[in-house]
Amino acid sequence: MKRIHYSWFILAITFCSIIVSGIVMSSSGVFINPFENEFGWDRSVIALAFAISMFLYGISGPFMAALLNVIGLKKMMIISMATLLSGITLTFFMNQSWQMIIIWGLIIGLGSSLFLTVLSPYVANHWFEKRRGLAVGILTASTATGQLILLPVLAAIIENYSWRFAIGLIMTLIFFMLIIIFLFMKNTPKDVGILPYGLEEETQESNESQKENPIVAAFNGLFSAVKVKEFWLLAGSFFICGLSTSGLIGTHFVSYCISFGVPLVTAASILSFMGIFNLVGTTLSGWLSDRFDNRWLLFWYYGLRGASLVLLPYALNEGSMTMLVIFTVFYGLDWIATVPPTISISRQIFGTKKSGIIYGWIFASHQAGAAAAAYGGGLIYKFFNTYTWAFFLAGVFCLLASLFVIIIKKQRSSQLTKEGIMNI
């Protein structure tokens, strides 16, 4: 019987770690109303805490990528998971809005950063020579799996008991994952005496990045990337990606449904239903990114997402379950499907060695968009008493993003790689 390559065990541990951290971030949507009702805080203030968290874990991405080269994969995962555990535990003791901003905005934002930004491409690049696109697709889909499994459960616990019991469940999962990482995670394939999956001969790799100060490495990557037009096109499209996914849908979709009379558990179940299609769509996207032009994949992903977001207000206003199901399917299929092609294009342009840090900056743009939508959605609701304009504008922006990605020239990516931009 053929032995399973240890890279797949690393993939499984990473998958579960991302699920747990993804549960924390995706749970924000079901906690808005309970926090508002118990503490009497303004919805825009609660949204601000979640917005800060999204922005902080995004902007921390390139520094996390650089720290991985210095501290190592296992220690970074342990530190990040422990930080996440601390933030969730402190949630039990908060009673002021500024405390929530510190706990959910700063501590949880930092704890989530590694898992939700650069961990997927780092593990795929260092543990896989073949099937990298598939590996990234699987890891990216893990955030959707977290929604699929737990959002309705968390909503049911909140509705029948208390939000504190829901927080307790999340805390237990984080603690369990921390133990798994400590016992079974490894830094590199060399730690278990193997080569990356699909690599038959060991290659010489430079250790310069491991000696470089992580802050210097992160900013060096940024300064080099901003000179490349494709970086701005990817960062701009990913800003819109974050704005239209975790920032808007992840934070405000449940509350938007509730405003139309949809019960909390039902709204959370619809969001988790998206997770089913998200899991399929993102994994399939990773497979497709190994075989087709990534620019055209992104073009269709953003175009379909934009159309579905424009459809949503009409579906809720008409009370049409058929239209809502259509939205759920279309939106779910490409919620995070944009990530594998974006990572693939980044790797083509900047090379395997530097693409981790540079993708970290691209993802920082993603989270800046998410933060803008999380806070902006709360403001729009405050002034208009509805989220309709927020969702309609997000749909229009997605159509703009589809134009951004198609401008990227395929021959430019190949040319940049040949000319040595990968070594910047």
TrEMBL record:
Its main location: membrane. It comes from the Bacteria. It is found in: Cell membrane. The chain crosses the membrane at residues 7-32, 44-70, 77-95, 101-122, 134-157, 163-185, 231-254, 260-284, 296-316, 322-345, 387-408. The keyword Transcription does not apply. Residues 10-413 form the Major facilitator superfamily (MFS) profile domain. It holds the Pfam family MFS_1. It is a multi-pass membrane protein. Keywords: Membrane, Transmembrane, Transmembrane helix, Transport. This is MFS family permease. It comes from Peribacillus huizhouensis.
